[in-house]
Amino acid sequence: DGGTPGVGYGKVASGSVLHMGMQFVGEDEAGNVTGLGFDEGDALDPLHVWWMTRAETALLPNIDGEEVGVLPFYWYLDRATAEDPEAQDLEARPWFIYRLWASDDFTGIYSPVGVWSAWTLETQLADVEPNLAETLRQSGYGDSWILMVVLAADESGNYELWPAADLTLGAGGEVEVIDRTRKNWVRFKLSSGELDTTIAHELWHNGDAPDAYETLRVTDGDINFGAAGVVARPVNYSDPRVEGLFRIGVVLPASLENRDIAVRWSLQREGEVLAEGVLPDYYYTSGEIQTLQLPYEDPMGVIDFDYMPDGRNEVSYVLNTQAFWDNDPVGGNFAWDPGERIDTTPASVFFKVVRDANVGDYIGRERQRGKQQIILREE
C-alpha cells in the first residue's frame, strides 16, 4: 500500500477485508521473461489473495414485524467489500445454516422450533425447504410469531458469530430480542393459511306458493333459471315471484380445520346494503355447505326482489359472502371482531332483475339502445 512492507494484521482485525492482487512474469533458464506490455507478450494470470476475518449474513426481505402467508426469504454473505472473491475451487463457497423459534407475542420470549438446519450452499429458503410454511401450520404454529436466524461460514472458514448484541440466548435455548444491529434475523407472523369462501346460486319464479318462501319445485310450476345473471320480473310480480337459493361453502387450510369458522353475508341493491347477517352454523371442514334463501322475512319486513322504481327497467343486486375465524377469547360470538382472521377476497354473486316480460326482450332492447341513430340532413 506504499507504506511499511508486509501485511499488518491490524488491517483486517477490525472486521474488514484485505484484497491483494499480484501479477507475475516467468523467466526461463536463458533469462527470457514474459513481458508486461501488449507488444511484449502476455503476463501470467494474476493471483488474487483475500484475507477475511468477518462473516455476516444479510437476510431478506426485511419484513420484521409483518404477517406473511408464504416464506419469501433469501440470504447472502454481506461482505465488507463490494467485490466477491473468485475461488478456483467451485466448492469454496459460503455455507449457511438457519434455525427457527416461536412465540405467541411479537415482543415475547421465543422458544425453539426444532434444531439447526443442515449446512447448505443454497441461498433461498424455498430451495432448502419448500413446504416449510405448511409444515409449521400443521405443527400448530399458524398465527404464531416466528424468529428466524441465519448464520454463515465463508470460503476461508470464518464462522459467523451469534448476534449476541441483538438476541439473548438462554440456557434452555429460548431467545429474547433486545436490540437491532445485525441483518441476519427476522421476526414474522405466520398466517394460518388461506381462508376462502365459495358461493353458487340459482334463481327461479315461484309460481305455486305466493305467500310462502319455499325451495324450487319445478313440478309445482316453478320456472328455474339456474345460475342466471339476468332474470325478468313477472308482470304480476307478486305471483309468481323471483326467488333465489345461495349455496355457501368454505375452503380451509389444515390449521383451521375443526375451528369455529363463520360466514357473514350482505345483500346490496344498487350499491346500498339491503340486508346483512351471519349464517347460523359454524363450518369445521372444507366442503361443508350452508344455504341462504331470498326473499326471506325480516323483523323489519320482507327482503325481496320486487323493487322496481318508476322509470327504471332494471335493478342490480350483489350478494357478498365472507368467511372468518370466530376466535373470540371467551367463545364465538358469530360476529367478526378486529384481529380475527378473515377471507380477504369475499365471494360474490351479481345479478339483475329486469322489468321486461322475458330476458330476450331485455337483451334486444339493450342492444338497440347501444346503437346510435345517425341522421343525415341536407340544407
Question: Can you summarize this structure?
Answer:
The protein has 379 residues and is mostly beta strands. 8% of the residues lie in helices and 35% in strands. It has four helices and 22 strands.
What is the secondary structure topology, with strand pairs?
Blueprint: H1 10-13, E1 17-22, E2 47-52, E3 57-60, E4 66-68, E5 74-77, E6 95-103, E7 111-113, H2 125-128, H3 132-141, E8 144-153, E9 167-169, E10 175-177, E11 185-190, E12 196-206, E13 223-226, E14 230-232, E15 241-251, E16 261-269, E17 272-278, E18 289-294, E19 296-298, E20 301-303, E21 314-325, E22 347-354, H4 359-369
Parallel strand pairs: 4-11, 14-22
Antiparallel strand pairs: 1-2, 3-5, 6-7, 6-8, 8-11, 9-10, 12-13, 12-15, 15-18, 16-17, 16-21, 19-20, 21-22
Describe this structure in words.
β16 and β17 (272-278) form a beta hairpin. The strands form seven sheets. The protein has a five-stranded mixed beta sheet with strand order 4-11-8-6-7. Strands 14-22-21-16-17 form a five-stranded mixed beta sheet, with no helix packed on it. The chain has a four-stranded antiparallel beta sheet with strand order 13-12-15-18, with no helix packed on it. With 379 residues, it is mainly beta. It is built from four helices and 22 strands.
Overall average pLDDT: 80
Note the total helix count: 4
Q: What's the total number of strands?
A: 22
SSE string: HEEEEEEEHHEEEEEEEEEEEEEEEH
- What form results from the Cα inertia axes? elongated
Spatial strand arrangement across the major sheet = 4-11-8-6-7
Runs with pLDDT <50, length 5+? 372-379
Task: Classify the helix fraction into a percent range.
Answer: under 10%
- Rg, nearest Å: 35 Å
Major beta-sheet overview: 5 strands, mixed
Distance between the termini: 95 Å
**What is the structural class?**
mainly beta
Query: What is the beta-strand fraction?
Result: 35-45%
